[in-house]
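From: lab user (bench 3)
To: helpdesk
Subject: output format question, protein + iron/sulfur cluster

Hello, I'm new to running complex predictions and I'm not sure whether the block I got back is the full result or only part of it. Here's what I submitted:
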Amino acid sequence: MKHRIAEEDIERFQNLLAVEMIDFDCGKLCAPINNGVPACCDNESVVPILFQEEYKRHWHNGRFWKRAPKTKEIKKYIKEHEDYYVFSQCPGTGRCERPKRSFNCMTFPFEPHLDRDGNVAGISYMNSREIECPLMGKPKKIYNPEYISNSIKFWNELFAHYPEEKDMYMGESLKRERRAKRAGKGFKLFRDESEKRRNAFIVFVRTPEAGKVKTRLMKDLGAEKTLFAYKTFVADTMKISGGLKSVDKFLGCFPSTADNFLKRLAGKNNFKGMFAQEGNDLGEKFINAFNDKFDEGYKKVVIIGSDSPTIPLDFIKRAFEELDRNDFVLGPCTDGGYYLVGMKKLFSKVFKGIPWDSSEVLNRTLDKLFAGRIKFSLLPFWYDIDDIDDMNFHKRHVKYLRKK
Ligand code: SF4
Ligand code: SF4
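Helpdesk reply: Thanks, we reran it on our side. This is the complete output you should expect:
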């Protein structure tokens, strides 16, 4: 059999799920109404499923789980389901110990809910008719936030090993959404609030004022047309960020936040806040913005400008992912600058002494990253719009994107 999960991954998954889900023994709620046995542990009504490697690990560590007897029904299940499951039997609550529980035991009564992009948006109650679980439907506040966070991490990692599981839960998630829509009410989705606190996304903008924005473009388009174009860039850039999950979004404005157009956009696109950029040059403005967000407790901070309104959402998502493995991330621009910069701790030196109005920004920044031995990652190249040539290409690019 092909091994999909390594031993150390199983151990990590078990540790993730081992944190207390709730701070009371919920078995006491359901056992009295289920012949004295917690409903989800009742061999009469439940056939626990273990992953092959998980089963083997438990087997080597004390032979706790057994294979379920191959009744007619189980045979049907085995036939219908993928070969990576082991349909099992628990020897009973009397012998239950925390390390012996399966992933299934530790995630019940939840399952992952995936968004349309295939990301685990949170956990939601299973749609189980077989088990009468008194926890189902209870509010989020009774659950340990660390458990919710760990469970989401677990599913995300598990799906990397079992894409079939991801497809299955994607289907279940769509069904859940359809059911909720039909019923005219939402469903309980418990998101990872701790993750949200960890990620900050900032869009740097200029307060839109005729004659003060995109001066190189203004030479050809005039002040009013340039202002209109710039407002469109800002609106489009902020709209892209609507696809970001578990991220707090901020608008960094220069010189001031006192602008109704920006305020309206921030509200419409669920930005958490606006602030005025502070500093004498772009480098200082970056340093101050990063510093403030790290001080507020964010672990990963990513900033983009508003000159690349067609930047793919995927690049921004990748920037946050790259910060899991790196300390610094840059989105390089074809004109020698960068459209995105992200960090998980402050490296002020990288932003000092950079000739910001030149095509040397990217090269000089890279030199500083190498010199400082900073672990960094580069995203794919993209373009920004500074002058009429960029604008002419941008128009055609937008036309192309609309056609796709
Ligand atoms: S999770 Fe639900 S079914 Fe299982 S023991 Fe707790 S209350 Fe009972
Ligand atoms: S291992 Fe424990 S939690 Fe899991 S089914 Fe058995 S008794 Fe219930």
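A quick orientation on your result: The radius of gyration is 26 Å. Let us know if anything else is unclear.
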